[in-house]
């Protein structure tokens, strides 16, 4: 009988393990409990910015896709690809040839700049906040959170429109933009919102954000001046000059003193994150994030800098010796006996990991240039010249105010825009919004203009190549999405 | 369970008496009737008592037995013989038994004779995998069993193999079988490590459970089949010590393609007007010549080329090496009346084919079993292994030596004139990296299974087994301060970066089980199994990273100046609770029926679908046991059998997959909360209905034996990452949708051609023919592109991973332009990914695979050969695309095939016009889709056992010396560019579909070893 007891005891010990079948993760909370406290909302808003940084992107079939947005590196990046797609840089023959399919305008739906998925991640994080915003009691905290979420949503949609859709000024009323997503439904298969409609929604979100958001969130988060600065950009793209002027004026007025236009002496400090002058909003990147955004342009080696792209020879020559932006943006190095001009704008801080530096999204320099261009078009050449001179006074060590008028003034504004925003993800979009062709020089990649010239010298204005292909993943899943022509 | 208790209670009330009698001593010698040699280890028992001994090495025994009693001689592989004790010695000659009768199959819950087995279980003879210079048991199974497809992942020391039993049965859940060792179910994640740590020489049996009747015993874990391994005991060996030593070399298998030499490469660069050759430019500027090579005169050019050719060398010679393999094994085993033991120690060391690649393994095992009481026995099986490896990078760039050995230009020097490493045009000195960026891993893993077995009455066994598995993994990756890589990616203010990461998975598996065997009358035989089981698994991991190291020799984290901010730990757990019952019935050992049911509940799945029931049934008919067959003497055995049942697949799914989650990260060193997973409360395991019919036969005194089976496995509720529009912020969520099937034939055959005393010659072979087809995806989905590679699709009506790429239409002979077929089959010179088409019949999955071999022995000399083969699969050959480019890859070295490009109108059978700026190279076209058929002489072993007459003088039981060669010869009938046995494409790029692609993964290697085994 003793044996039976032993057996029975054994079996009884193991019975009753049903509750062991409920296991909960150690690194996540259930979605139903994600938006309870104000701290939850702060965390979620910061999650939007890490979305802009392309961090914690959900894996595709177990594989985390490459970062391609403001935290992108060499597989498509807001800091580099719009310059690669332009006349600012030339493929360095001794580089790793990253992004050369962009440089050669050979992208396909399989191999495109997949900013699509990254930007919509940021949008969905913002939408989840907006969907749950009712959990917060009314007040400035709630307003600010909602304002930040709206601003991120608007910015990400605007970036998508710039990349995948026709320029606002060239699009017809029915030309497709990108889906303007405001729902958190995981089963949605949205069609492309009409280009002009989507731009309207961008404006609407920014306008609402402007009314809600705080002034003092700091430059690592969206803030009122940043929203207004971005609005001046959006209005400029839309060709709405007075709105642009107003937004820019607001941004200049609302920007904290610490973020005012950087004087020439401080300009270089912006790129090592030693000053927040000039910066209205930047995505913060720390060494621990492991996102060296500068590698899209260069990596330094004991034998010199190995550049992915050289600065295009004739563009390089546009930086005069008194222009503080030249030394801030461009370095010269010999690699394997060949001398190059390389982009050092994102080479890193004075201490810390190489190529890790904050990604600047909107700066005061641009706001002045936006307003100058808008004034010119209003037309108000006096104020346009005034803004242009304000900028130039802060960019040249010895500067005598210019007196340009007419086309000369317009060209000077565009020249300063190109010089100011070089390697900052603007050039391709500026050419596109102005409905101009891309025209590269015939020089090579070496510092003296020798070397291998670009194989594609020009892209005609309004070519289908200006609308990048929508990633094939989306096309396959979402039958409501129409691919851009030419892919 | 209550019934079982009642049964045991009832039976216990019966009295058992033992008879004791007066004993005398009987001695004798036991020999084999087939060859007349003495048989050691034969069990000699006095019938009706517990008295028993085993024969010694000379086949002699001595047992005390009363006169008139009966001795029972039993030995595996021979028919049991009973002899009545008369006066004097009792010498017997045992007759070899028909194979089927003596072989057993092990399901992990119990052991059955092969004769009574009605399910599809392949057994592998453990002798076939002993003494090989390959550490992983998974690799050693290649070609050994029908329907078990083993693909070597790559040639890295300690690389695992892909195991697919009867085709690929899942898309996104696990595709590997469950591993059960000594009754312990090994967690799926850690099974690869167990294959590597178990010592092949410790293995007693390997059984592969293929059909439902066998695999559905494992319910939700059985769908991909089960590999059941048992390890040796001392029960059947005399007390002995066995030592094996092995020494050899390890080299890359030679290529079938030629890289350009310096002269060819320089001319190629010149012809393509490539102006980026730094060495050339350097030379030209040092000699005050124009740096544009096309401005040089012919003599100038030739002088410059000669200067570069003078410094040329073959990078393979500099990067590769011949590695060394050393193996020591010591096994001690034996038994007395109540206790048996098996203890082993192993050491294995293998140098990889490059510096910075090596493996060291230490393993120890103790199997102990003792009879505590006549009705109670205790068994403890323990295995512990420690493995450390040095690793190289496995990705497509200059950090990978196996890309570098092809990609670096031959005229680029290893060292600069000042002795520093030459960065080369790749900007990275691979030989420096192999030294200064060391990556080491350590694995400590093992299991312990403790079993208490009550057997209160005849036929009843009630046991409880507590099994634990532990897998501990640590990895160190050190970018030494001052290394070139550190200059590239490090922090100049805090040089050097060190990462320590690792994980631990602890699992326990408590199995309570009762087996009752009983007969009703003499014709009705029953075997009933009941199991209750609970498993719990906890996985933890950590990552530490810091920078700022003062000295390249100091690598522990406490030397660092700054934390990288990436430190983290994780934890994840699952539980599984199960009930299982199985009943076997056979009538006169002629008709067999088996049925089983299992109920599993797992924490992994959604609250709505947490439990599942799994059934299986099978039947067998031994035709040769029928009266009407008695006259047919050439047919020794014929058994027909069939089975049907369902199984599940819960592997490959993360533990909290059914929950909607918000995860956490950081931004600017502050917490972020982000939606990380979409919920699915209905998530459950994949379901597989398996059907199997087949027959086993033995002919002509069992000279010919074999098995033939047809199976039809239908998987439904496939777990898919259901793609969602990325506009939702997600790419996919897990859902049970879709279906696929695997249908095919497994056949194996063994023929003993010569079976005489001196000479034995046998041949054997096995084949699997498998047809895989995806039959259903989710609503509206026409196909899923495999996101890791982008080349292939999961598409209803097609085999899994069928390629979908643009078809190449050759070169326009007039212009040299590359031509493609568009979607509609029209020729175009414009490549567009929208012209990709699914290529029916072209997938990485072979149509046939298997192995065949032969064993010849003459006296003590034995030669055995094992060939493996695969036919009908295709590989997308990236290596070829990169090394045989159309000009775009002119900056790196190229195969000489790249020289054959279009040069003038009318050129045919050429590559397109070489154009260095062309991006065609990045296009996916079927030109690079190659047949990867092969037959490979996987193993060739020659051994010699010194005659016992000689060794016995030195008190040595046996002494054997042997030579082995692995991968000695390969037939590559379709001229695959590279090695046609393709496993991993690129580990770090996650190209892990077996045979799908090549991308400079670690090449397969060839070993030659010499060894000796001595047993005392």
Distance between the terminal alpha carbons of chain A, to the nearest Å? 81 Å
Helix fraction of chain B by DSSP (H/I, runs of at least 4): under 10%
Q: List low-confidence stretches of chain A.
A: 12-16
Class inferred from helices and paired strands of chain A: mainly alpha
Tell the overall outline of chain B. Answer: globular
Describe, in plain words, how this protein is organized in 3D:
The complex is a heterodimer of chains A (487) and B (1016). Chain A is 39% helix and 9% strand. Chain A has 487 residues and is mainly alpha-helical. Chain A has helices at 2-14, 38-52, 81-84, 100-103, 115-132, 140-164, 195-212, 224-238, 241-254, 313-316, 325-329, 364-377, 381-393, 406-420, 427-433, 472-477; strands at 28-30, 89-91, 279-283, 298-301, 304-307, 309-311, 330-335, 338-343, 359-363, 438-439, 458-459. In chain A, α2 (38-52) runs antiparallel to α5, α5 (115-132) runs antiparallel to α6 (140-164) and α6 (140-164) runs antiparallel to α7. In chain A, a hairpin with a 2-residue loop joins β7 (330-335) and β8 (338-343). A two-stranded antiparallel sheet of chain A has the order 2-6. With 1016 residues, chain B is mainly beta. Chain B is 10% helix and 46% strand. Chain B has 14 helices and 53 strands. Chain B has a 22-stranded antiparallel β-barrel. The chains are: A mainly alpha (487), B mainly beta (1016). Chains A and B meet through α1, β1, α2, α5 and β4 of A and α1, α7, α12, β25 and β27 of B.
Question: Could you outline the blueprint of secondary structure elements for this entry?
Answer:
The complex is a heterodimer of chains A (487) and B (1016).
Chain A lengths: L1 H13 L13 E3 L7 H15 L28 H4 L4 E3 L8 H4 L11 H18 L7 H25 L30 H18 L11 H15 L2 H14 L24 E5 L14 E4 L2 E4 L1 E3 L1 H4 L8 H5 E6 L2 E6 L15 E5 H14 L3 H13 L12 H15 L6 H7 L4 E2 L18 E2 L12 H6 L10
Helix pairs in contact in A: 2-5, 2-6, 5-6, 6-7, 7-8, 8-9, 8-12, 9-12, 12-13, 12-14, 13-14
Chain B lengths: L1 H11 L11 E9 L10 E4 L5 E3 L5 E6 L4 E5 L6 E4 L7 E3 L4 H4 L1 E3 L4 E3 L7 E4 L12 H4 L7 E5 L8 E5 L12 E4 L2 E3 L4 H7 L5 E7 L2 H4 L10 E6 L8 E13 L9 H10 L6 H9 L11 H13 L4 H5 L3 E13 L3 E13 L6 E16 L2 E16 L9 H7 L22 H7 L2 E16 L5 E20 L4 H6 L7 E24 L3 E24 L14 E2 L4 E20 L3 E12 L8 E12 L12 E15 L11 E7 L2 E8 L8 E14 L4 E13 L2 E5 L8 E5 L2 E17 L3 E18 L7 E2 L6 E3 L7 E4 L1 E5 L6 E4 L5 E2 L8 E2 L9 E11 L2 E11 L2 E4 H6 L45 E3 L2 E12 L2 H4 L6 E14 L25 E2 L6 E11 L1
Parallel strand pairs in B: 1-7, 13-16, 48-52
Antiparallel strand pairs in B: 1-4, 2-3, 2-5, 5-6, 8-9, 10-15, 11-12, 13-14, 15-16, 17-18, 17-53, 18-19, 19-20, 20-21, 21-22, 22-23, 23-24, 24-25, 25-26, 25-27, 27-28, 28-29, 29-30, 30-33, 31-32, 33-34, 34-37, 35-36, 37-38, 38-46, 39-40, 40-41, 41-45, 42-43, 43-44, 46-47, 47-50, 48-49, 50-51, 51-53
